[in-house]
Write a structure and sequence with these properties.
The protein is mainly alpha-helical. Helix content is about 75%, strand content about 0%.
Length: about 160
């Protein structure tokens, strides 16, 4: 592999890690799980880029890999780690607004596909067509997942304010 390609991959990982983590956190709702998801995604992106020589759009490939890894991980729930033993002392509260907490809790209640569609559409600011292509689904499916996901979020917010 050429030295220039390796340095480009290194620069990509350094430059996109934080943005990928933010999206992963919105997908997972858990900091540790999001870090694992980003790490797995970046390993797959680097290995894919090395295997194929070069990828046309590393950013799109990374985004798609992130979402696919998240969704497939949710399907195989029996393979995830389960922690057992004594619970730690009460964790320190993170400074966060009530609205942010409410939205993340509502996102956690959505199906993985609905969550992925909403994160890509509203956090990553992708179009319906780009989201459909990234997730490998029809535009009408993206629209229905968006509508159902937003309806569930609105219902959760209304329920919280009652």
């Amino acid at each position: 592999m050429r030295r220039g390609t390796e340095s480009a991959l290194h620069a990509f990982v350094e430059g996109r890690r934080t943005a990928l983590f933010r999206s992963a956190y919105l997908l997972c709702g858990n900091r540790d799980e999001a870090e694992d998801l980003v790490q797995t995604t970046l390993v797959r992106v680097v290995l894919g880029a090395r295997r194929h020589g070069r990828l046309e759009n590393l950013d799109a490939y990374a985004r798609r890999t992130l979402v696919n890894t998240f969704v497939s991980g949710r399907r195989r729930f029996w393979r995830r780690e389960h922690a057992y033993g004594e619970l730690p002392d009460v964790p320190a509260q993170q400074a966060d607004s009530e609205t942010g907490l409410m939205v993340r809790a509502a996102l956690a209640e959505l199906t993985p596909r609905q969550r992925a569609v909403l994160v890509l559409r509203y956090w990553e600011d992708l179009s319906v067509a780009a989201t459909a292509e990234l997730l490998g689904m029809r535009e009408s499916t993206v629209k229905s997942h968006t509508a159902r996901g937003l309806a569930a979020l609105k219902a959760a917010v209304r329920e919280e304010h009652v």
